[in-house]
Amino acid sequence: MIFKKKTYSNSSAPEYLIVGLGNPGRQYEITRHNAGFLFMDMLSEKLNVKINKIKYKSVIGEADIAGHRCILMKPQTFMNLSGEAVREACSFYKIPPENVVVIFDDISLPCGGLRIRRKGSAGGHNGIKSIILCLNSDNFPRIKLGVGEKPHPDYDLADYVLSAFSKDDIPLMKQAMEKGCDALEYIVDGKIDAAMSKFSH
């Protein structure tokens, strides 16, 4: 994947907000619900930028992706209030919902699965529910990272998504995140249909 380098002045406004969802705190670091945070860590490494400024109830960074200036965000509100952070940044930078790309965990996809969507409902995901509520719109693209379904129907969902990835899961997740980084470049460049057909599986 080639992220194009571009210099821009501080006065040029960011076009996109890239949001990885998760929970702050050491105990949540490598849990399924933190797939979005883990994705952002990989992305920042690829882009050679830091996500470490505290702003908008988040840690943020700035990067250029496919010639577009982007804010990279990891909300620190805890998952259920993610929308508050997104709303603050969107309001400040005047970023419309369709230019907010959200990356998050999805239990309906097998571990390592990837799905791109242009918009849609929350599908039971509390982070997405909060963003829809705070933006008053579900019209934002998302990259869903499959974390696998509960091992048993009676298994508590919260316990499952807050459990750590197994050793076997980790390489599958890394592979999905690599593809997600490639897909993100397409999305930011206005080629979401191509991203959906090429990377969703």
Description of the structure:
This protein is 34% helix and 20% strand. It has six helices and seven strands, in the order βαβββαββαβααα. The chain has a seven-stranded mixed beta sheet with strand order 2-3-4-1-5-7-6, with helices on both faces. The protein is globular, with a radius of gyration of 16 Å. It starts with 15 loop residues before the first strand and ends with a helix.
Question: Outline of this structure?
Answer:
By secondary structure, the chain is α/β, with parallel strands linked by helices. It has one domain: Peptidyl-tRNA hydrolase (Rossmann fold, 3-Layer(aba) Sandwich). It is built from six helices and seven strands, in the order βαβββαββαβααα.
Note the main attributes of this structure.
201 residues, alpha/beta, Rossmann fold, 6 helices, disordered N terminus
| Tally of DSSP β-strands | 7
CATH architecture: 3-Layer(aba) Sandwich
Assembly state: single chain
Outline, from the CA principal axes? globular
CATH superfamily: Peptidyl-tRNA hydrolase
CATH class: Alpha Beta
Largest sheet at a glance?
A: 7 strands, mixed
Quickly give the structural class: alpha/beta
Find the CATH topology. Rossmann fold
Average of per-residue pLDDT values = 88
The succession of helices and strands, N to C, reads EHEEEHEEHEHHH
Q: Span from first to last CA?
A: 19 Å
- Biggest sheet strand order reads 2-3-4-1-5-7-6
Question: How many DSSP helices?
Answer: 6
Number of domains: 1
Low-pLDDT sequence parts: 1-11
> Strand fraction band?
15-25%
